[in-house]
Amino acid sequence: MKQKKQVLDTGRKGKQGRFVWLTLSICLCSILMFCTTVLAQDGNAGIQEANQKVRSYFDSGTNLMYAVGALLGLIGAVKVYQKWNAGDPDTGKVAAAWFGSCVFLVIVATVIKSFFGV
After folding, report:
1. How many Cα atoms are found within 13 Å in the side-chain-facing hemisphere of 41?
2. Contact status, residue 92 vs residue 80, Cβ threshold 8 Å
3. What is the rounded CA–CA span in Å between residue 16 and residue 10?
4. What average pLDDT does the structure give for the chain?
5. Of the chain's two ends, which shows fewer C-beta atoms within 10 Å, N or C?
6. C-alpha distances in Å from residue 114, one per residue of 59, 65, 68, 69, 100
């Protein structure tokens, strides 16, 4: 029994060794087949292209921030109106918070746009 077990272990190790060599040879062949000379573009041209793409997104981002500010303004107006009708004493604080958040979004969008010169 012990001899058969040793024979089986040797057979497994041999199969694993063949599998490893087969895997390595396939990887080496694929690397050699697909290895080509890579032609890179000029670094400055790539940076300029990225700069232009990012700058083109600023207008869309600014408009999105204005839209979010308007939406928050509408939601805030409804919430303040509900508190005012309910007679809550902290209506002024809630109104200031909603109004402040809307003004913050508009100012941030404008400042970012002017800061980056877009």
Report:
1. 7
2. no
3. 10
4. 77
5. N
6. 11, 15, 19, 18, 21
pLDDT in tens, 88-118: 888 888 888 888 888 888 888 888 878 877 6
Domain range list for the chain: 1-39, 42-118
Give the span between the Cα atoms of 41 and 55, in whole angstroms: 21
Residues listed for the chain: 118
Q: What was the pLDDT predicted at 57? A: 83
What angle, rounded to 10 degrees, do the helices at 91-115 and 43-86 form? 170
Gap between the Cα atoms of 68 and 59, Å rounded? 14
Lookup: tokens for 49: 């292209």
- 79: enclosing H helix or E strand: helix 43-86
d(CA 95, CA 101): 10
- Those residues whose C-beta lies under 8 Å from the C-beta of residue 98, and which sit 6 or more positions away, are 72, 73, 75, 76, 77, 79, 80
